[in-house]
């Protein structure tokens, strides 16, 4: 029983080669759905033996769904370009432990890194994500940001994905700002409406939860910075939603 690696990309020349090499350790094919990258992402992917399909970005969930018909296998390992299987996850897949039980989606623990430092506080670990699923009964949601896998029988497994998403706080803030806009638009499209107190309330709650209850306070300046970034994201998501309400 084979496994298809599926990755959506845009300007990922820094990571895509390592990502594809890692996927081929457990997959017999790798499918790249690229949003017309301006760098060498497509060239590198083809050199590494991946099949590349180009598609203008449809949103996180729809873009992943677009790639499924190109995957010949039922089991899909759908990593981001800056994600890699830890050794325990590789062993889990190579030993075919995913076939034990009647599960169609497996949620792995994610180790998030800032440069080379593991962020294991402020709610960033254990951060569970479903990246491995059977497309016959499970599929990505239609959410345009932070999609989830819709499955019939999901299981959490204590193996890990390594996520090297950011080199600096600047990158985290920029990405969170981008995501906040996408989230606001998604909430608006879903009919969500809020009052002016919502951004302040949610931003404050996010900070208190991350800094005090999720152990950010014990991790110095990094703990404070991560808690403030989470508060910023929560605040901006709803502040931008209010702007959409007033505009439309």
Automatic annotation (TrEMBL):
Coiled-coil segments on the chain, per record: none
Domain Glycosyltransferase 2-like: 6-96
GO molecular function, one term: glycosyltransferase activity
InterPro entries to which the protein is assigned, alphabetical: Glyco_trans_2-like, Nucleotide-diphossugar_trans
Keyword Glycosyltransferase: yes
Alphabetically ordered keywords of this record: Glycosyltransferase, Transferase
Top-level taxon of the source organism: Bacteria
One Pfam family recorded for the sequence: Glycos_transf_2
EC number, UniProt record: 2.4.-.-
Keyword Transferase: yes
EC main group: transferase
Family statement drawn from the similarity comment of this UniProt entry: Belongs to the glycosyltransferase 2 family. WaaE/KdtX subfamily.
Name of the protein in question: Glycosyltransferase family 2 protein
Species in which this protein is naturally found: Flavobacterium ginsenosidimutans
